[in-house]
């Protein structure tokens, strides 16, 4: 028996002593009595505790499952932390002054003591069921979707009816009497994961972001202490959610509620593991306590209609609504990951405006935005608005692909299940690591690269994998999971364990994921570096990227498992299309090049124009002489399908100036109404091209290159799209007045005429028209959407997205329902009773996405 753990009586003694020594801080009471007559103790902590029930509160419950001792142990250590620190820690003082902590260290005292003294794996309470069995699973005994179960022997037996047990009815009665409870934490073990509450449907709830951010910010506090990263996973509603849990009961009452699963064993080595779990969760609980006031009636209202106004390739504009108040400002947070914290590190704006432009973003990348209102006097913050998810558009020279593996090419191979390994593909999950039954298990994923033209330049490549369950990873800080690229041409059977396991990798990605960073419910992302992207480019010729995912392959003595479970989106336990492994690519198509010669050139004096001659400088009277030339691109390049990636204007000089005066020559891209001195003098300059050429450079060489910068390239594309000739002016400048300083440039008739060298790719530039005739109807309890696709040979398909809170203005602003060539889809995972918005976007091969076709679905009842 682990004697370092406190008994229930030790806990009560500690609480009584703490109250006697700190009566202004701590209050202790019994809220009920168990079957075996033990008091169910609840401790109240606040400054001043006399007014505790008047403040917003955090409810902490621990050890509702008898064998999960972390809840009781953490409660004791947290109260000791408060006692030791509240007098001088300003954050803790503020949290305790503005909020109240209600803490039930052990909600299952009978079971807890039975686990300590008789059978350590005991889970339930100690109710006599009258049939020779004992115990009810208290976390199945609440009335949130309570499910009757006649199997009293089961570890998850929920009891004869909801709240049949003294423990659950005691906490129910306390919660009913304390409407000031705003947040509830229910501490369990094991898994190192947060399980936020649900409302048993597939729709996003208004509090969904609050739940995720609370967990993510607690996670951030945990990471500071041990570097460990907990998962955040809400499960797959409405199936596979536990019935009758306290978490859903609290949430149904408007309380932000989550289960916290701690550690990798129910009763771990205290000094090595439990002490770490306690230490990392103390600041996490303190953070949650500080947040209670932000979900109380004292908090500002939630920001309304937080939405996307515009998305560009390197910027986005967000907007929202709020009643005008001088005492309110807004905090805007941005992250590149889902379920990320909202802290000072990613606070990108503090503003009183009702809009925000975020710039300097990466093209073709996902971003997640959160917002809350703040009272500038009290500093109390509002709940969060529903999170905005978007993807910046691609830059003009880029294409993008999201590749998914075919069903038959994603799965896992086990050392001890050779005859069944093929059955592990396209069904349920990948199990990767090592355990006593399977032996070593490795994941296999093959991506078809045939849609990426050979010779393309891969600019970014990211591989995403969704960790579904980490319960079988039972050893703290043991093992790493990594990705290797295999040569698919050397493997004729991807279902052969030995061939995959023994294959020599072409490369193993530099990023490995340690066991403590193996989250559940937060996407893992491997970003390929330059060397890895170059390797990927070389594989385009064989059309296949074959990945092997490996974890630890040996176990320490006395251990039976170190396995991570990853979702592949298929099978009865898969999460569907949203959770399939995928490869995100941004690439540039193979570059083409062409040289265009000037269509006309002129020398423009103050009183004359010499056609087919190209000179510039100063005449005998010191008047400036302009060189002018034009290029016609429209015959060479389709304005709708040409993206210029580079351009260089080359001029050849025939002479240099004899004197030493500093005269320099510049080239301007201009808009020109007529070719005469007056109009050239009044020209609208667009941009200088390249750098100026000095007389010294004229002496050194005859060829002079003027390279377009990014702005000039953009203007080149604009003029080309408008089917306007490109006009260039060669202009001389001098440090003082110059005369008879004329440089002759080889003209259009010369053997080396002026030339414009362009590099470009061919891809569609403009998005397609939006789909039309979008309609909804309900068939067999499911919302069906129909629309008409735009009539274009460039159409690849339509992309359908659902958003409960506002019209989707980006294809990624909500839940993806469908992408393909059909003209209908079913919202199989939605709730037909709940109102929402749907949007359908057309997309091409780039992909460019059209403006959305949007429809409001009113639902079949008020939510």
Automatic annotation (TrEMBL):
Keyword Protease: yes
Assigned EC number: 3.4.17.18
GO BP, sorted A to Z: proteolysis
Record's catalysed reaction(s): Releases a C-terminal residue, which may be hydrophobic or positively charged
Cofactor or coenzyme needed: Zn(2+)
InterPro entries, A to Z: CARBOXYPEPT_ZN_1, FN3_dom, FN3_sf, Ig-like_fold, Peptidase_M14
Domain Peptidase M14: 4-285
A GO cellular-component term linked to this record: extracellular space
Keywords of this entry: Carboxypeptidase, Hydrolase, Metal-binding, Metalloprotease, Protease, Signal, Zinc
Pfam families given in the database record: Peptidase_M14
Domain Fibronectin type-III: 302-396
GO molecular function: metallocarboxypeptidase activity; zinc ion binding
SUPFAM superfamilies: Fibronectin type III, Zn-dependent exopeptidases
Superkingdom of origin: Bacteria
Plastid listed as a keyword: no
Family recorded in the similarity comment: Belongs to the peptidase M14 family.
Protein name per the record: carboxypeptidase T
Species assigned in the record: Pseudoalteromonas byunsanensis
